[in-house]
What does this fold into?
Amino acid sequence: MILMTRRQISFFLRAALYLGWLLASPGSGPQSLAQAPTGTPTAARQLGTVKSVSGDTITLATDAGQVVTVTTSAETKVLKLAVGSTDLKTAQPGQLADVAVGDRVLATGKTGDTPTALTAARVILMKSSDIAEKNAAEQAQWRTNGVGGIVSAVDSVTGTISVASGIHKYTVTTTGNTLFKRFAVDSVRYQDAKPGTLAQIHTGDQLQARGEKSADGLSVKADEVLSGSFKNLSGLIISADATAGAITLKDLATKKLVTVNITANSTIRRMPPQTAQMFATRNLAGSQAGGRTGAAASDQNGGARGAYAGAQGAERAGAGGQAGQAGGGAGMRRVGGELSQIINRLPTESVADLKKGDAVMVVATEPNPDATTLTAITVLTGVEPILTANPNGGMDLSGWSMGEGPGGGPEQ
It folds into this structure.
């Protein structure tokens, strides 16, 4: 039987979130392009990335996963819009020959014979090269001027947020000019984030902040803050419905049945058996080594009984036991950090590959603490060796940063 603590089921949270950062970066074309045509009296519109151009036909892959055929004519007006702009007055005249694979296009006109066909009266174009250039500049800003981690405290009076990332502790100061954004309920992509407020940020949230850093890099006056609440689940799948895109599992931490919806934004990855066993072994070794460190600290405090409990990963025995747990966690974070960096290289699967009895770990959005139906961000399968290796310990990624901002990598 699989047993585990809350620490175990959170071992790959930030890795899953980091995958979300890699999927899209801030301020890119899709969002601004979608906003551009507001107020236009057209009957239909399609927004997506160009898959192919053939003659007068553009094939788009929409953000919803559909393939749309856009037919143009000599009367179709093509406009080239700068990345980030929503004002069509700034657009420059273009032509169909300007449209290339990878570009972002918003086509407006009339619906064709099928819902996925459109006859375009106007095509608004953002070049992929312009999007890439802007993204690169913004990613550099997040890496240079950003911090990220887990919220440890929020002072609503002063607008100050405390953030922890491993051994680092950051102070984020917000003002009336700070832009707040909140992760969407089914996505960790920056472009899907919604307007937010300071009041929405709570202890335990994931947070990224970008702005003017102090000389020591531990404080930032935030121009922008992005945050979200996430829940970690782990257990055996009780049922799987590929048609409905949902699985039900018994969460090992709460012992409750939870339904997890899997959407187009969810990622399913499988860990090969050899890899799972390798990390299970390292997890156990890390727990024991960290426990010994904690035991030594406990002995110095005269807590012999607490040292024994700490070495076993128990959550009792007073201050000595707490010292042992802390040592165990420190030993395991290294192992969890290694795992987090390979998750994005694991093979992907579909919801149809999930079967009853599979051991899974899930990172999901947390609409409220009592929710029994959640939306998956990442589902990791093939993890049974990890969950059974050390039932009293577990991996912990609390020392691993989500990244220095959307599009940035982890800072170590």
